[in-house]
Amino acid sequence: xxxxxxxxxxxxxxxxxxxxxxxxxxxxxxxxxxxxxxxxxxxxxxxxxxxxxxxxxxxxxxxxxxxxxxxxxxxxxxxxxxxxxxxxxxxxxxxxxxxxxxxxxxxxxxxxxxxxxxxxxxxxxxxxxxxxxxxxxxxxxxxxxxxxxxxxxxxxxxxxxxxxxxxxxxxxxxxxxxxxxxxxxxxxxxxxxxxxxxxxxxxxxxxxxxxxxxxxxxxxxxxxxxxxxxxxxxxxxxxxxxxxxxxxxxxxxxxxxxxxxxxxx
Length: 265
Description:
Layout lengths: L8 E5 L12 H7 L3 E5 L17 H14 L6 E6 L2 H11 L4 E7 L12 H9 L9 E7 L2 E7 L2 H8 L5 H10 L10 H4 L14 E6 L7 H10 L4 E5 L6 H4 L1 H14 L2
Parallel strand pairs: 1-2, 1-3, 3-4, 4-7, 7-8
Antiparallel strand pairs: 5-6
Helix pairs in contact: 2-3
InterPro entries: AB_hydrolase_1, AB_hydrolase_fold, MES/HNL
Pfam family, one: Abhydrolase_6
GO molecular function: methyl indole-3-acetate esterase activity; methyl jasmonate esterase activity; methyl salicylate esterase activity
């Protein structure tokens, strides 16, 4: 899913269980503003052909993004946008290719920090969530080449109440049809390595955290806690946005992204 060769190049990364499809409102808006857009499916997500039990590691899960960033032409500066768990995917790409990234946008996302392991924000979010949050979410265990791995599938009630509660009934329905099993990879070596993210690479990239102010799954307090972990991170906010801000407030999100693209060269 690409567009104009002029303007900035946005690379959009979905969250847990989702796919490139969740950006369907935002992509044409960014293209209409003259920017190139690539909405990606991580491995075993969206229309990607693999199954989650066939994905050995978080790096393999992130491979579509890492390959896309690596293939970007010399001199093309990217704006990476990671939603929810997708914040960890873009963090890995920032560490590997910092000179290619003009800015990184964390949309109601897990945003790690230098000096702590990548999974710290995911672990903290899970620690703060109350047991009744999970509603009809299904838990499963995948048999992988690395051994058993826990996976999650969002149920229709959870999607409607916690993720898409301010989005349209059509968006809720689309999600119930398209979500796939997702993994948080909390036991993955990449997630446990406190030296993974460095000041010289990840820390050198311009970061903007976009707070979804009406997010029922990731509180404003939690989102701002992650901003505070990384001094120098710019914060934007979108009033009335649920967790799926690209569905509930696409025009407002587009406006934020266009300002970011103009600000960072």
